[in-house]
Design brief:
This protein is mainly α. Among the domains are: 124 residues, Orthogonal Bundle (N-(1-d-carboxylethyl)-l-norvaline Dehydrogenase, domain 2), CATH 1.10.1040.10; 40 residues, 6-Phosphogluconate Dehydrogenase, domain 3 (Single alpha-helices involved in coiled-coils or other helix-helix interfaces, Up-down Bundle), CATH 1.20.5.320. It has 10 helices and 2 strands; from the N terminus they run ααααααααααββ. It has a two-stranded antiparallel ribbon. Strand 1 and strand 2 form a beta hairpin. Helix 2 packs across helix 3, helix 5 packs across helix 8 and helix 6 packs antiparallel against helix 7. The protein is globular.
């Protein structure tokens, strides 16, 4: 996909002489593959931030009439990027390197979960090898992925492999910089921004937001929670004086 993107952005429109990308209407359609994959990921409880963001970007692009109205009602930053152009291009290259690895990590995690849930016994290393033969998601990373999966067939996530973790640690700062620049300029980069969100969530030993969510679930629905410091299932009587805690 990166290969054909390079080809597309270098083409001119025969009728106007403008870059062809500027005359193609900005309403992206879909055949359903992304939707089905996202739905199955949700069924399996597998986080696929990048895939979901790409799907939602297509959905909002289809709301062309609403976006046209919103463009004259909702305000965004007036600033444009004023940093060093060549430096930013290098940051973008590293950001894409990181984001692509993060996307592959999510995809193979989904394949692994589906294989375990449905007893497919998918040969993930062999799949990585087969994809090198002409699939639209073929990549120079596939040999690296194949090697990692052959070395450790039960690898829960490619980001934990030695190659992926090393490259991600080297390039993730560029991914942050590119996302920050895009936000400052009001440019939507849903997949890049969700890539860093996935990375930061996955590497977090503790997710305070998840603790708050579970407390809220217990507050409004008595869904209980677990504690860090004591085994068992607990429920707090949030609206009673002293909000006593019960162990289930």
């Amino acid at each position: 996909l990166m290969e054909i993107t390079t080809d597309i952005t270098g083409r001119e429109d025969h009728k106007t002489g403008r870059p062809i990308i500027e005359v193609i209407k900005d309403t992206a359609k879909q055949k359903g593959t992304g939707k089905w994959s996202s739905q199955k990921a949700y069924d399996l409880g597998v986080p696929v931030h990048s895939l979901s963001a790409a799907l939602l970007a297509r959905f909002i692009s289809a709301q062309k009439d609403q976006r046209t109205v919103a463009s004259s009602v909702l305000e965004g930053p007036a600033s444009q990027y004023e940093g060093d152009k060549e430096e930013f291009i290098q940051q973008m290259y590293k950001a894409l390197e990181a984001a692509i690895r993060i996307a592959y990590s999510q995809g193979f995690a989904l394949l692994k979960a589906g294989s375990e849930e449905y007893n497919y016994h998918l040969p993930l290393a062999e799949i990585a090898h087969i994809w090198r033969g002409g699939c639209i998601i073929r990549s120079r990373l596939l040999p690296v992925i194949e090697e990692a999966l052959r070395e450790e067939s039960d690898l829960p996530n490619l980001m934990l492999s030695s190659n992926f973790s090393k490259v991600l640690n080297e390039n993730v700062s560029s991914l942050r910089a590119v996302v920050q620049a895009a936000i400052s300029c009001g440019v939507p980069v849903p997949v890049l921004s969700q890539s860093i969100s996935y990375f930061d969530s996955y590497r977090a030993k503790i997710l305070p937001t998840a603790s708050l969510i579970q407390a809220m679930r217990d507050y409004f629905g008595s869904h209980t929670y677990e504690r860090f410091d004591e085994p068992g299932i607990f429920h707090t009587l949030w609206t009673q004086p002293g909000y006593p805690e019960q162990k289930k």
